[in-house]
Specification:
By secondary structure, the chain is an all-beta fold. The protein has no helices and seven strands. The strands form two sheets. The chain has a four-stranded antiparallel beta sheet with strand order 1-6-5-4, with no helix packed on it. Strand 2 and strand 3 form a beta hairpin. InterPro entries: Ig-like_dom, Ig-like_dom_sf, Ig-like_fold, Ig_sub, Ig_V-set, TCR_complex_component.
């Protein structure tokens, strides 16, 4: 599995976009970038994931560089409620689609 490195802490202004970088220079071609966050003593919460293309949902956007060696999680309007530990994880994706 690819190793990831992230800043140990970041400050951002409330109401502004928060950009959280992640380096994953040893990523392989079929590994996905996942972002989770953990607030206080709660369990980890899934935010977003992507393979090659950028992704956006109601919580955040994920920008993956063309060489896939790094990515940035963007929280468009950060608030105090977004204060958490954010985890960038690289792993294979196994999804069972349920219809």
């Amino acid at each position: 599995d690819a190793k990831t490195t992230q800043p140990t802490s970041m400050d951002c202004a409330e109401g502004r976009a928060a950009n959280l970088p992640c380096n994953h220079s040893t990523i392989s071609g079929n590994e996905y970038v996942y972002w989770y966050r953990q607030i206080h003593s709660q369990g980890p919460q899934y935010i977003i994931h992507g393979l090659k293309n950028n992704a956006t949902n109601e919580m955040a956007s994920l920008i993956i560089t063309e060489d896939r060696k790094s990515s940035t999680l963007i929280l468009p309007h950060a608030t105090l409620r977004d204060t958490a530990v954010y985890y960038c994880i690289v792993r294979f994706c196994h999804v069972n689609w349920i219809y």
